[in-house]
């Protein structure tokens, strides 16, 4: 596995949400990003934005916008404030999870610095396609905390993997509980498939028994694939996952605690959505929201998802909540307020970035 420790990280172009996409300029040590790769990145970003706008337009076109506005305008602002605070707590918990993993290798990593970076990442993710910008912010923060490029990226990859476990576990459990209220047998099957896939992936990555076999497989794919784009992409992803897993293979206790924090993140996030539902006078139970929000978040993790999941979130919530008897306008209003709650904390991240920039400017004068 030593060949994966210091692997060149310049070949990944636009990976799924499980793999943090860090700007190549921050990772590359030997060669810049090629023009075709840059063009593909921008083209994919355009596709993401177009997909989100199309999905949002489809939802808005079929809804009575006057009724949506009437519902949103009558929302209880105190409960909206509680939702914003819960969403902020979600970001803080995510920063704490990243800090747990980071302190395995750099014990002096500052939780406060990571929390500020998490808010700034939320700001960038809210307006940049995919999760490229947000992961870059956290990646740079890890470097400032003493991490080299390879180790910093490994921490982000493992943090994403643990976070995905939290989404799938809570979502699967909630779907099983709510199968009487929603026709979700196909969704339960899909989430169960994700769960099995995650279990296999985690076992392969973190069990020493599979180390040599997986390494040989990756090498064979690289040799046979030659200059094939898909083969190079597979080798790039596999190389990063193997390198990340090797860094944490003995940190079992920290991984378990990180999973616990991930479950807390899911719970607090759903409570935030529950406050939004209460503010709008909607009769939605917590178990039902666990299932619905988890499905929406899984959809937002897809590579096609636009910035902050805009469009995807609205379409999914309207579709899922309509199965519970919630009308389209109420579901759309709920989705828009949830988006506003997320944007509120994203804007806080923007203010943090501006404040830090102003302070650095004054220090240089």
Task: Describe the protein.
- It is a single chain.
- The protein is mainly alpha-helical.
- It has one domain (10-364).
- Helix content is 75%, strand content 0%.
- The chain has 15 helices and no strands.
- It has helices at residues 2-5, 24-27, 35-61, 65-73, 77-102, 111-125, 132-144, 149-177, 185-206, 211-225, 229-248, 252-279, 286-300, 312-322, 328-364.
- Helix 12 (252-279) packs across helix 13.
- It is globular, with a radius of gyration of 21 Å.
How many beta strands in the DSSP annotation? 0
Structural class computed from helices and strand pairing: mainly alpha
Radius of gyration: 21 Å
Strand-and-helix sequence, N→C? HHHHHHHHHHHHHHH
Taking the sheet with the most strands, its summary is: none
Strand content: under 5%
- What global shape is seen? globular
Share of residues in helices: over 70%
Number of helices: 15
- The unreliable regions are 1-33
Number of structurally distinct domains: 1
Mean pLDDT: 76
Ends apart, CA distance between termini: 48 Å
